Amino acid sequence: MNVRDVMRRAATIHPAETVRNAIQLARTRGVRHLVIVENGKICGIVADRDVKEAVARAAAREELGEPSLLTRLPVEAIMTRDVITIHPAEPVQMAARRMLDHQISALPVVENEQLVGIVAESDLLGIVAGAMVPDRAGSGRERLDQPSGRL
Amino acid sequence: MLVKDLMTSSPITAAPTMPMFEARQLMQRHRIRHLLVVDGDELAGIVTDRDIRLNWPSQATSLSVWELNYLLARVTVGEIMNRAVIRVGPQRDARDAARLMLEHRIGALPITEDGKIIGIVTETDLLRALAEMAA
Fold it and tell me: Band of the pLDDT at A115, cuts 50, 70, 90?
């Protein structure tokens, strides 16, 4: 099974958009990572953890009587610029290995320099949960409640 | 594959009376994100790095350093832990562990046998199992 079989459509946002809009987008899409894209090129990624820390810092400033930055802080100010990506034809095992090596929980999927999707830790846990059998690429998705072989 | 094959045996634990700041140090030292809270022999709860972040005093606190230190020493893991902990036995299939984590949006499962903690399985352990599967 390859990354292409488990990836989802990535939620993207422009680097100049505000952190506030990024929070809104992540909520509506129900995702924990946003890929920052400008002119079709990936320039960064933000995880919900980055956003929470930015919000906490802004809230602390507000408590101290300083104006909140949150309404105008652009996502590019808090994004991670070194984005670790993966190719859709790589096996899912490689995606798991890359997340472990870099201690990250999502990988934008890139083919011919184009963002084609995203694979998250939860998608890989879904494979372990038995929703799919990793060693039979293309065999389709197995239902959890149906008997199937052990991993 | 069973959870006992993936779990970390003899996990790091804390007593409910451990101050929160000490728990944070313990977790940082061992580079863990989940700390099992044990009262005697019994699993009493679990504390995540997120729980500690949420309960940590704001940087903008009006408390003095002395008051802050007093507060940090007073708040214990027993007060901030999650009590409703989902646990599984060592013979459970690894797929069940992954499914429980996804369904309940949790990152770790304590492994208990005869009421005693014998290990912990985290998302990272399951990811590692997947990474090591034959392609």
Answer: very high
A89: DSSP letter:
T
**Kind of pairing between the strands at B108-113 and B42-48:** unpaired
- Tell me whether residues B133 and A61 touch, CB distance under 8 A: no
> Mind telling me how many Å the CA of B2 is from chain A's nearest CA?
9
**Alpha-carbon distance B128 to nearest alpha carbon in chain A (angstroms):** 7
Partners of A61 on chain B (C-beta within 8 Å) are 60
Report the C-alpha gap between B117 and B5 in whole angstroms. Answer: 15
In chain B, what residues touch A99 (CB-CB under 8 Å)?
127
End-to-end CA gap in chain B? 16
CB atoms within 10 A of CB B120: 24
pLDDT score at A141: 38
Give the residue from B112, B116, B114 showing the smallest Cα distance to B97: B112
Give me the residues paired with residue A71 across strands.
none
Cβ separation of B134 and A59 shorter than 8 Å?
A: no
pLDDT band at A38 (very low <50, low <70, confident <90, very high): very high
Residue A76 near residue A21 (C-beta atoms within 8 A)? no
Q: Is B50 on the interface with A (CB under 8 A)?
A: no
CB atoms within 10 A of CB B33: 16
Residue the block writes with tokens 């694979």: A119
